[in-house]
Fold this protein.
Amino acid sequence: MNEAIESATPALCRLQLGVALRRLRTDKGLTAAEVARRLLWAPSKLTRLETGDNGVVEPSDVIALCDIYSAAPEDRAVLEGYAVVTKTKKDWWQSALYRPVIPPGFKAFLSLEAIATQLHTYESEFVPGLLQTNAYVRAIHQRAHAGLGSAEIDRLVEVRMTRQEVLRRARAPLKLSAIVNESVLRRRVGSAQVMRAQLEHIAELAADLQHFRIQVVPFEAGAHPGMNGPFAVLRFREPLKPIVYLENLASAGVTRREDDIDRYEEAFSDLQAMASGHSESLSMIHNAIKEF
């Protein structure tokens, strides 16, 4: 296995593997159903492999697919290497400490966020997760998950704080463009002190991180494309295509459909045009700080 693969995260290996396997299949002119039938697999198994949804990929499954696709020896070696990484390494959210408190749909998002190059997110009610302070996160979970014990809430807070490392990773930090409704600045979460510290944190990040941009949609903007709810669009290095993440009270998940991606990217562009600019938005944040 080459050094680049050995140093890659399991999440990246799963996605790279899925893209490559799908390309090999389509180049061979085979449908997913035909391949699954040859291998006596359930069709959903091949779908999970091609979308990177499997936590672990068996090298023997990759070998079987490469045989059907008549993959070149160098391609086989790379793809088997990806599979080995998924079996021998774990992403941080797969640890026994965090696994019980992370819903399956959110695990899918974490694996994507960890390898994304850009994140465009709109939030109507909350400060975006990558910008939240420890106290703000705790206040949210104490209200939203009243039945959880302090240990579980501690783990949920740790998950949120660990996620934020993508903004400060030494190699290619995530480029974050966040748009929030003005109500996010006005709605007190926790005490006034918690809210004031949260807004100050956003302002500090904006000053420290050149790859972070914040915009606020003011009340006076009226109706806007984000009124149907929050969303996030993630972009990756080629050949991985963008995805959209959606979350509500009952469920969470990602969509890779091109028409969905186009729709949400257009909505984000419209929001960028309607929202106050970065500097003006920071002024709105500083004014809101004075009110707490």
